[in-house]
Please model this.
Amino acid sequence: MSVLPRVRLLGCRDAWRCVSTVFQMKLILATRNQHKIEEIKKILSEDNVATQKLEIITLRDFPNMPEVEETGKTMKENAILKAKAVYSITGIPALADDSGLEVDALKGAPGVVSARFAGPGCTYKDNNVKLLGLLKGIPDDKRGATFRCVVALALSQDDLRIVEGKVRGIITDKEIGENGFGYDPVFYYPELGKTFAQLTQEEKNRVSHRGVAFRKAKELIKRLMTNNE
Ligand code: ITT
Model:
């Protein structure tokens, strides 16, 4: 039996919600960032939701798809832009992550421009060097920062859900650690006494902005799949 008659049989209004109760459903992560993809897949598979009910694909499966321009003024606007654009091109429910670092002493910068803080085409290293330079001489008690992650889930053209996660830390005065990506080597997490780049992926996911946000997204997806939302 094809999908639609089954949906009618179930008497459901929303195709994705209904079909997901019967089949493994596709969900596309609206990113090509391999570090994010690995972290997100790990978080979504923590209680087998991803492995049993969801087939997770990413923009890496669509090499010819054009980049979505991040023209929003906030992480929330950019997450929505990415999720909507990817949904409208693929027709597949899309999860987008827009994230970044907000440094207290820099009035929340680099924030929404975290990826390109040191200029177009910059590397993670360039960004960290620029950040450490700007914070030179600033005492520890004024080096607080927040990692923020906003996740948008586009279920259809006009059904959009937003969740958010954040974590507080302190910007170090040099890069420490080899793991992770981006600003991880300069983000010291006092509760564990290490930078994010000194944590294993599991340790980082347990406490990170992305861990918090995607665990909320996962609960939302579980509720949608069981038709309770
Ligand atoms: P996509 O837009 O394709 O998802 P991106 O790397 O451009 O990938 P963002 O626009 O969300 O992602 O920018 C996020 C930047 O913020 C990222 O490039 C890092 O510099 C930084 N960042 C975000 N999450 C981070 C994390 O967990 N650890 C370290 N740096 C992070």
Summary: The longest helix spans residues 209-225. The pocket of inosine 5'-triphosphate is lined by residues 31-33, 36, 70, 97-101, 114-115, 124, 127, 180-184, 196, 208, 210 (CB under 6 Å). Strands lie at 25-29, 54-58, 94-103, 144-156, 159-171, 187-189, 194-195.
